């Protein structure tokens, strides 16, 4: 590597660059005098003029200054918003090629961490999304008063600059039209909206979740104080003007930075839950409960989990990181018993309610971290023989992997939303489990995110 080059270059310098491959974060990768260069929104086979944005001892960050020759993978109909807001980081790539690159991102992650025999892994072609646009069933819209004007939408990529949105290619139409109507009502009622400069105002975010099956909306207002001025007039207007809204809640988060949600959520009006259908089962979701953002593709994802597990009536299934119980409940008729574990108490309450709603009697749920509760179940003599893990982006806790390896089960299915932590976890899991295949699934079209279903069996 020619590290002298990184010493010679400075921010703003430009040079020609051919993009060779996709990186694990979806950026384009090229090489300038043997030094690796990461360029967002660049695609393999692009020939560009690259402008340096950051210089590091061993690599460079750049941006596209000019495209000299566009790659055959480029989408000629890229939406204008792709350069303005996040969530459209792959919109410049043709959809069929997005699928190929998502499998490449998975390969890149495996190449980085090198789990045992990874070169021989069977990586299946990425399963396409049922819908490539208007698929997102939930949005968190920051709302702010900026220079006397109310803006509501999404942040500009990599900034805290709020872009006022009337449309979003990946968001469902009903959600977008409801958001705009709510903003107009807020303006009419002169409800105090968060002003980032003055640190004043009450309302900071509008969260809307949409049920595809029942055509209903769950609206949550995130406020900076428990007091919600003109709350009753707001509810009356929403009831009258947006009949699809079935639930209105308030979440209190006094922090301007950090997590979106505060600890306290209260129902202001309507249904406690939003309902959705997944593979013929009905599920209740409270405002903070996790639901896959792509409702139509969730059916397909769970079918793939089912295929990987091949459940039988002899199976005692551990549904780890179970959320509101969706995966386990959809398998309840094909297994002997389910043990669900989730760290969020409200989610476990929802899971118990969902089991009851679907007349599932062979499921037990526990609140706590999976790495603590699972060993306790084993001590109690519960002989789990099949496991589905669906951890957050951070992957499995080290102690959970230790328990899985010390007590290997016949069948293990890992549902991953982060190829990097998956590859890292497979390094240790591969000690006791054989990777049968990895099935990438596109849950987030127009983004580099890739979900993966991994089938593992005991060695």
Automatic annotation (TrEMBL):
Active site: 417
Keywords: Methyltransferase, S-adenosyl-L-methionine, Transferase
Family matches, as CDD domains: AdoMet_MTases
TRAM domain segment(s): 8-66
Record GO biological process: rRNA base methylation
Molecular function terms from GO: rRNA (uridine-C5-)-methyltransferase activity
Entry superkingdom: Bacteria
Membrane spanning stretches: none
InterPro entries in UniProt: MeTrfase_TrmA_AS, MeTrfase_TrmA_CS, NA-bd_OB-fold, SAM-dependent_MTases_sf, TRAM_dom, U5_MeTrfase_fam
Binding site for S-adenosyl-L-methionine: 292, 321, 342, 390
Family affiliation: Belongs to the class I-like SAM-binding methyltransferase superfamily. RNA M5U methyltransferase family.
Protein name: RNA methyltransferase
Organism (species): Companilactobacillus paralimentarius DSM 13238 = JCM 10415
